[in-house]
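Page header: ASSEMBLY MODEL / three components / 1271 residues total.
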Amino acid sequence: MKFDTPAGPNPIDRMKVVGQPHDRVDGPLKVTGTAPYAYERHAVAPGALYGFILGAAIAKGRIAAIDTRRADAAPGVKAVVSYLNAGPLGKGGKNTAKLLAGPEVDHYHQAVAIVVADTFEQARAAARLIDVDYVRGSGAFDLAAAAPTAPLTGGSSKEGSAAPKLDRVGDFESAFAAAPVTLDATYTTPDEAHAMMEPFATIAAWDGDRLTVWTSNQMINWAHEDLAKTLGFAPDKLRVDSPFIGGGFGGKLFLRADAVMAALGAKAAGRPVKVAMTRPMMFNNATHRPATIQRIRLGAERSGKLTAIAHEATSGDLPGGSPETATSQTKLLYAAPNRLIGQRLAVLDLPEGNAMRAPGEASGLMALEIAMDEMAEKLGLDPVEFRIVNDTQVDPEKPGRQFSQRQLVRCLREGAERFGWRARDAQPGRRRDGDTLIGLGVATAFRNNINMKSGARVRLGGDGVVTVETDMTDIGTGSYTVIAQTAAEMMGVGLDRVVVRLGDSDFPTSSGSGGQWGGNSSTSGVYAACVKLREAVAQRLGLDPAACDFADGEVRSGGRGVALTSAARDGELVADDTMTYGTLGKQYQQSTFGAHFVEVGVDAYTGEIRVRRMLAVCAAGRILNPKTARSQVIGAMTMGVGGALMEELVVDTRFGFFVNHDLAGYEVPVHADIPHQEVVFLDEADDKVSPMKAKGVGELGLCGVGAAVANAAYNATGVRIRDYPLTLDKHLDRLPEVGAMRRA
Amino acid sequence: MKAFTYERATSPAAAAAAVAGRPGAKFLAGGTNLLDLMKLEIETPTHLVDVQDLKFDRIDATADGGLRVGAFVSNTALSADPRVMRDYAVLTRAIQAGASGQLRNKATTAGNLLQRTRCPYFYDTNQPCNKRSPGSGCAAIGGYSRQLAVIGTSDQCIATYPGDMAVALRVLDASVETIDPKGAVRTIPLADFHRLPGKSPEIDTVLAPGELITAVTLPRPLGGRHVYRKVRDRASYAFALVSVAAVIQPDGTGRVAFGGVAPRPWRSPAADAALPHGGAAVVAQAFAGAKPTRDNAFKLPLATRTLAAALTPARTA
Amino acid sequence: MECTDGLHLSRRGVLAGGVASVAVAAAPAAEARLASAAPPAMMPVSLEVNGRHHDLRLDPRTTLLDTLRDHLQLTGTKKGCDHGQCGACTVIVNGHRINSCLSLAVQHDRDRITTIEGLGTPDRLHPMQAAFVRHDGFQCGYCTPGQICSAVAVLDEIKAGIPSHVSHDLATPMRPTNTELRERMSGNICRCGAYSNIAEAITEVAGAAA
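Prediction written out in full:
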């Protein structure tokens, strides 16, 4: 089915199942520990051996020699595989760095070898017995040092966010020079880690020349394609299965070393092999959100109308890599006739930078939305009003092009009302609660909507059960549940009559989970397959499909109702279809919007910033399940607090690696950091995006949170921090003296 | 993790003898730090002597009005003992500020004293570290040192003692009771228990090989107001940037020790004496001669401000 | 080994190439190479897990976590970090929650262990499990068993009068307030960020139990 004209009324509009806050259908499995994650597939791959991956000890250089004799001779060892005996390997189309080092080493902790042994303990001990001689090469590891000479580079995050290297509208320089009120400030965001709770893990089993990997991956078809390419064999001999995934956030978008090394180890050992990457290795072995340096210039009339916007961002990546597209939202968010976007990419020999939840916008809004706060203060305008004044209903670069739906102003106004924004003192540093300085902050949330083609197969069994099969993944997003709701709505049955099977490359290819497209795109694919199944049902029953209504387990036509089950009495009905998209996405700018409101308390003594209240108001099309969608947003808000206050992969610029490479060193928010969170969804249905009329929320919830926290901290203290994370050392020396300090 | 053999000790003397008699042998109590380090082969014992059956898990009153805390009393049990909560609240507060509920249930009093630094270079066996691999160098000097020590360091090591409990024990003038392989017992004031790195940063404490901690004793209660204030980047489950343990008497005199700033809990008589003159005076005394790095120089003003917070009775938590 | 274009080092050695400012000494001498370790002696361990008795023979290096997951196939207990930094491996041993990753199975001979599988099943959920479903106190589900085991134990710890970092007054009974629950649950990281919902789920159960 091709979606190329705005959706008219359709069965989803009934919202009897879709749009309802159903509990997750996979909930009982997850809360009882019976949902099987990749490393836990004892049943499908009994008797697996254990693999343990050794990572490179240097960031850049080459392997001069590998001596595996001690490891080979260690108890229980069945195989040791390195580049010396792995055979020729290709590189996945979506991998920047190859997944097995040798002889060159491209980054720290790049996989060097796998040891396969009878037990985990044996494999882990033997990996330490591999003697590797490295020749260290020189590398570039310091973004700040490389930035001044980094070339302009356009690019895409591979996850939907894209920005050109240079983009001009009007005459920015003249307008900025002429503007009565200007801001020119530079902001930095650090490298960040996905730090999903389930490590990369795979069980690999060969059957002759056929390979099955039970793995943890967000994009089954990307993993399938790239694993076949890496191993150099035909994709039809490979099966990838990933029904439960312990978080990804973009970290599991791509084929990673666990799958490749498990496959190589299993081949060498002649037995299934299971591998989980150790937590201390994940941070340097895998991808991360790249650090940025962002210069923002704003020029405005005294009324607050922006006349000039420039946003220039620099990031770094390995050779052949792509930029963090931190300027992407600036192309679309605020009106101003004169605009300049610039994007630079330095070559760095750090681990591979790549997509992490809301690539581009997450980092870009951390900077842009502080700049907007600073500019509002210069103009003497309320930050909410300043954003409203500069709202646009058309693409600012192509004024003839409308947004499909844009309710940013309503998000801001409704949020301000609900949050008690009026209580905010525009003069920072004046509101106190005992020894706690209180501040309120706001930021706009913005993330583009992306539609990805997505397929599904739907079966109607003789027992009346509707089974959906698609290689779509559920990474915590609620895919199982919203897909079940979609099929139930379309076929007119209860949720308890729907079975959803996901994550298997033998199923129709879906959108996968990324770029907050998964919910809308995958359910649209299921919609398409259900439309076909409805036709098959009608045909079997001798009815006119166009005149049929599917409800309450019946097919109704012309005042007569037939049990749906009866259509499959003589055999299962199966329909398979893929939703594809026409040019509506070009005709209309499709985006999601929101407003984040945050209250922080800053300890007047120690400078510790803690979040006290949070509210997000989101406008993201139809919400398929308010319960799971809300969870996506609160989770994203939590990640935003981490990015604002604590998360930073610290680069050792001498040795070229992320130093704090475990979960004690890389701090992410804990329970104590997160207060009760409020989320409001505006009642929307966007007929330009899909028959589901839905967009995404999973990334929108993150976009802008960091800046809202930063703006609240400024409002509390009067000290502006432009370098994330906002750790106390960055404002401590500028906080006022307190209490017993004054004595002495 | 390297292979090791394992036994359960049946008496303190036998435990001490078992460790002293075998190169590479170590005691195993809760294991929450030792196993962590063994997985990374930072610790590579060849033999573990599990001391849990020794049942040093009682807290008893001493003749002079203090408490004797068995070496293997869990952190949770120690912090929740009604006598500790009443008379040594700084200890309850310090323990509860550290780690997580799960870790505190497993970690022991003795083991907590012996926990090793969290310096990230110590934790990465590809990096030089004099504490882990004597003579290999110190990657932290000139590297990432935000969490590390500002005083008591040497040109060999700038690692921080990471714990909280010991900072409170230091302010309480606790002492450590041990037994050696010959059955001899000795009492080590906590002030002398942790070593400064000097030229041998690989040695964290004054314990001799095979010397087993049997108890920690607390002198009679000090009275006063007990405060433990820990400053960290996230609100819980994180190591201190700076912590302050203080016992303040109504007349403004008292005692103060700092955590997160040195290779051991940091306290000095001169600093205690300066307490009536305010936080800045205390910090000036306590941190005279400090050698912070660019990354951690903020710890000095932070110590001043944290102490100010601790000294302000009326402040909300 | 010869090297011309950089520093020669081994993975057991130190890294110093091209960094003049870093003082590092030479790599430690190569240890007795090729000296293969003897296979570890297996040790008998008896565990009572979820009411069932198990007699096992284990490599002493085997953690309680890996014993549950790999030897007893109780994979509800998760390995998130294997270093006591995330809480996904939380189980209840003799009534106390611990990180099963930082404990050897041989330390638990004759211990009584409750894992997530021992709390409830999909058809017969424990009240805490049901509350997590109702409040959507999880997303990817990987940290969830640890969160639930912790939550059950936290309510017991509050009843037992164990204080926390945020308990204002050590002399009065502990209460399951939102602040207390959040502090006490902080050893269980949820990267999906379900904290707000988890706190509500536990509050509901605490209210029902109070």
